[in-house]
Amino acid sequence: MKIGVPTEIKPSENRIAMVPAGADLLVQDGHEVFVQKDGGLGSGISDEEYVAAGAKILPDADAVFAEADMILKVKEPIAEEYGRIREGQLLFTYFHFAASETLTDAMVASGADCVAYETVELDGTLPLLTPMSEVAGRMSVQEGAKFLEKPMGGRGVLLGGVPGVEPGRVLILGGGIVGINAAKMAAGLGARVTIMDIDMDRLRYLDDVMPANVTTRFSNRLAIQEELATADLVVGAVLVTGEKAPNLVARDDLSLMPKGSVIVDVAVDQGGCVETIKPTTHLDPVYEVDGVVHYGVANMPGAVPRTSTFALTNVTLPYARRLARDGLRAAFAADPGLALGANVMRGAITHPGVAKAFGRDCVTLESVLA
Q1: pLDDT, tens digit (0-9, with 9 covering 90-100), for 196-223
Q2: N or C terminus: which one in the chain shows less Cβ crowding within 10 Å?
C-alpha cells in the first residue's frame, strides 16, 4: 500500500502523524511511505531522518494526497484539503465529526473511508485518544494558570497560593483521562481541586488515588452551579464517544463565577461542554464573555509537538500497520474495536453518534462494505 503523511496545516499545529521509526516499520512491511517535505520540522524531525528510514519525500500536499492510498494525519481535514481527498481513499486521523456538519458533509461527498482515532476502542477504552487526552489534561491547568494572571486578563490568582494566603480553586467537569491528568497537575501546584462526574465507581476510584487536596463530587446542575461560585479555574473534560459533548455550563451560569476566572474547555473539539465556548487557536487562544476568560484551543497538544507526536504515534502505528497490511474488511473483521473507528464510509455516515448529532441516517458498516 502507498501511505501518505502530509504536513498539518491547521493553525499552530506542529505535530505529524508518523515518526521515522514508523516509516521504517511500514517500509519493512512492504509498503511505500510518502512524507511531505518539511512535514516533521515542527516536531523536530528532519526530512533526512525520514529518508534514512526508507520514506520518500514529496514536495507538497497535492503530491502526497495524489500518490497515497491511505492518508495518515493528526487533525481533521480543513477546507483547503477537501478537494485533495478522493473516492475510495482511506483517511486515518482525528475527525471529531459531531462538532462539524461542514466537515461531515465534505467527507460524505468525497466518498472516502474515514476512520477516526477518537472512536477506536480497546476493552472499553479509547486507546488513540488517551495520549492526547493526557497531554491536554495536563496542559489545561498549565494554560489556565497562565491566563489567571492579571496581565493575561485573569483575576490575579496563583493556583498554589503562598503561606498565609489560600490557594486557588479548580473545578474539573469529568473524571476521565483529561480530568484525572488535570487534577494531578492542579493538585501538584497546591490548588484546591474538585472533580465532578456522574459515575460513582469512577468517583470512588478517584477518591482513593488522589491526594488530600482533591475532592470528588457527584455532578448535577445544582451542584455545578454551587461549585462555579468559588472556582478560579474550570476545566471542561467531558466526553461522550463520537457524540457532541453535553452542555453543562450555560451562559447564565457565568454570572455565578468570579470576575476574571478562567474556563478551559478541552471538549471544544466535540462542541464543548460550556455553552459560550468556541474554537480558538494558539495564536489567539482566549476571549472574554461576561467577565470570564474562555480558552478554546481545539488542538492543545499541538503546542508541545515533540511530546505529542511521539505519544500519539506510539499508539496509532500498530493500527496503521494493520490497516495497510490487511485492508479495511479484514482489519475490521479481526478487530471490532478498530471497526468502531469507521465514522464516514463511501458516502455514508456509519457512526451513530455522528448521525445523531445532525439528525441523519446511520448506515451499518456491514452494508457499506458488502
Answers
A1: 999 999 999 999 999 999 999 999 999 9
A2: C
Query: Length of the chain in residues, anyone?
Result: 370
Taken in order of first residue, the domains within the chain and their CATH numbers are 2-126+304-369 (3.40.50.720), 130-298 (3.40.50.720)
CA angle in degrees (0–180, nearest 5) for 175-176-177: 130
Active site residue 96: yes
Amino acid present at 101 = E
Question: CA 121 to CA 339: how far, in whole Å?
Answer: 9
Cβ-proximal residues to 65 (8 Å cutoff; 6+ apart), any chain: 4, 6, 71, 81, 84, 85, 86, 89
Per-residue pLDDT tens digits for 293-332: 999 999 999 999 999 999 999 999 999 999 999 999 999 9
Residues with Cβ within 8 Å of 181's Cβ and at least 6 positions away in sequence, in order, are 133, 134, 136, 137, 138
C-alpha 223/C-alpha 214 separation (Å) is 16
- pTM for the model stands at 0.89
**CA angle, 54 as apex, 53 and 59 as ends, to 5°?**
105
**Per annotation, catalytic residue among 31, 96, 294, 351:** 96
Please tell me what DSSP assigns to residue 281. Answer: B
Give tens-digit pLDDT for 264-275: 999 998 999 999
Q: Would you state the cell numbers that stand for residue 246, as one nine-digit string?
A: 453535553
Active site annotation includes 253? no
Catalytic: which of 113, 232, 269, 335?
269
Q: Is 221 exposed, middle or buried (0-12, 13-18, 19+ CB in 10 A)?
A: exposed
